[in-house]
Amino acid sequence: MNIAKIIAGVSRRDPRAIGRAISLVENHEPEAPVILASLEPGKIAGCLVVGITGLPGAGKSTLTAQLIKEYRKQGVRIGIVAVDPSSPLSGGALLGDRVRMMGHALDQDVVIRSMATRGRLGGVCGSAGAAVRIMAQSGCQVVLIETVGVGQSEMDIVRMADLTAMVLAPGLGDDIQAMKAGLLEVADILVINKADLRGADALVLDMKSVAHQRQERQGRAVMVCATIASQGEGVAALARTFKKIDGHLQDSGEKEQRRLQARRHEVIDWAVELIRPQIAEYVAQKADFSGDPMLLARHILAEMGVESTE
Amino acid sequence: MNKKYRVLIGKPGLDGHDRGAKVIAQALRDHGFEVIYTGIRRSPAEIAAAAVQEDVDAVGLSSLSGAHLRLFPAVVEELAKAGADDIPVVGGGVIPPDDIAILQAAGVRQIFTPGATLEEVVDAFRMACVERK
């Protein structure tokens, strides 16, 4: 498939072209800049990007699969970027989120892409933003980004998505754990999944109090939703909540602000990513590694002609 | 391994014995592959559609039910229908020796039967991926 065919195919919603385009960008192939330059800004502007994050086992994939069902009922073409961790040892990855979404495999208006973090921390992979924009170019009106199962500090999703849902479930930690979890300070929606399990009511109350405190401190509504994803309960209401929050963010101008911030962050991330191989080359050539690593790093940057701060 | 290879491991048909598929998936992961696992009881069309969306470099199929003569070629056909006949298909499972040539004639690149080592299987996937690029 040549590059012109791929670019035309993405807009024509050809699954093969969409898949190829994302791979070329993810692998930093020479064709990547041409593909990225072909994406129309208007397409991503009209697309709602929702982050689904939360602890491992909280039910992110099951909830995502149910959200697909809900959006398809509404006739919405939807994209999913499902991120799983790369092994730090082999660099390989087992991408298993798709197992729960296979019910939609033959629906051409459900575009699913599994991606590995490839060494990146923060819960999302470096090419997720580009994958979202390619999906938007192919007509997706909503894109869900499902992060890796996160702990307490993986925040990348919050600055990448228009709004972020943090999925919690009873039995995964007490309220002190919740207080530590930084995501609770920034997520727009706190979803208590497995709401039929013992302890769910208490968790809902805890999270309502977290939401209330945040509302007082930050002056912004934080929603709490309860779901039983395995049975689809609460999912329609959750999709309505997404829409409502998106409306508020748009009206207040915050959506535009968030997008601008997200773009800035992504540019910085890419700049660092693109210069990394050159730095690695310098380090590989260095024989003498005595001295403080920070000072060595400054020295290398100086040799490369990059002025470091401080 | 500098280049990241993406492969799909699928189980077409109705057999639910996925230990073998999982062992292969794990071995590939441990050798640096990105492995998309699609779970048990999928149709050939579903597996092919997933392979296309995920833009994998190779597809691995596992069958322990005896239905391989029908299911493996069906995946090859579905891939071709989707304009993805360049994605190689490798198969494994309980497969009688006489069936191997039939499957290969139908477009399955290679077949592994009980006794094959993980190294052999991983190498076969690596070769399939390298040749496609």
What does this 3D model show about the protein?
The complex is a heterodimer of chains A (310) and B (133). Chain A has 310 residues and is of the alpha/beta class. Chain A is 49% helix and 14% strand. Chain A has helices at residues 3-11, 15-26, 32-38, 41-45, 60-73, 128-137, 156-160, 175-180, 183-186, 200-218, 235-252, 254-285, 293-303, and strands at residues 48-54, 78-84, 93-95, 110-116, 142-146, 163-168, 189-192, 223-226. A 7-stranded parallel beta sheet of chain A has the order 4-2-5-1-6-7-8, with helices on both faces. In chain A, helix 10 links the parallel strand 7 and strand 8 (223-226). The N and C termini of chain A lie far apart (49 Å). The model of chain A has no long low-confidence stretch (mean pLDDT 90). Chain B is of the alpha/beta class. In chain B, helix 2 crosses helix 3. At the A-B interface, helix 2, strand 3 and strand 4 of A face helix 1, strand 2 and helix 2 of B.
* Most strands sheet of chain A: 7 strands, parallel
Low-confidence stretches of chain B: none
Note the overall shape of chain B. Answer: globular
Largest sheet of chain B: 5 strands, parallel
**What structural class results from the helix and strand content of chain A?**
alpha/beta
- Tally of alpha and pi helices of chain A: 13
The count of DSSP E runs of length 2 or more, i.e. the number of strands of chain B, is: 5
N-to-C CA distance of chain A: 49 Å
Radius of gyration of chain A: 21 Å
Q: How do the strands line up in the largest sheet of chain B?
A: 2-1-3-4-5
The ordered H/E elements of chain B are EHEHEHEHEH
Q: Cα distance, first to last residue of chain B?
A: 14 Å
Tell me, rounded to a whole number, the average pLDDT of chain B: 94
